Amino acid sequence: MAQGVAEVVPVSSSAQLVLLPWLLGWEQPADRTTFAAGLHAGSCLGIAWALRSELRALHPGEIALLAGASIPAAAAGLLAADVVEERLGRPPQLAALLAGAGALMWWVDARAATRDGRRVVTVRPSRAVTATAAPRPVTPVQSALAGLAQAAALVPGVSRSGATLTALRAAGVDRAAAERFSLLLSLPVTAGAAGLTLARTDRSTLRALGPGLAAGTVTAALAGAVAATRRTARPGTPLTGAALYRLGLAAGVVARLVRKGEL
Q: Using CA atoms in the order 161, 167, 170, 172, what is the torsion angle rounded to 10 degrees?
């Protein structure tokens, strides 16, 4: 469930998969990489189902932007995924990245709030109402920045959606358009990475993971569908809540490390 929600909300799904079991004392699956790939595949299916109308309505220009923006993350994954998995992803690193990237996301979103297309229309000298301009489409430059940010999110704790939302908001994209583009951009790379990992996994490992993997994949799909549906039903939600959760989780990790004498 945490994976499905965290694929939509910018709190780093990879960090949740490591830190929540670690904090709660749960046993890790025998092959964490394959298990995580199954959860990613499930959440990807759920998000795609929730966005099925958006996907059907995509025009060739948007498809080209999404395809081009997916290239940096795909290349980074092929070149550096093994190194990242081996060297990064320990609790102290995750806490630092959750807090640092979360604070940056919060600051950028707050700074960009004044550029969200709002304009003041004067009705009378003593009264005014606020009207919201229609969202402008994401430009090629903005999509390229989002693609580069998504590649940086290969590092656990950064958050793919958090990185792309931060880049798009910094580039002047309003919240609703940034959320939509970020969700659509998540599908090609997430599906490709999960599919490639599962295809490379031997059958005996898949059988050993068996019921747990199947249950996790279905749950991630349902959670991803619900989270994406709620997100699209309320576009333009500030990123404050996600940032506070990231900071709180990082503080919890630091507190446990201090209690254990590991920090």
A: -90
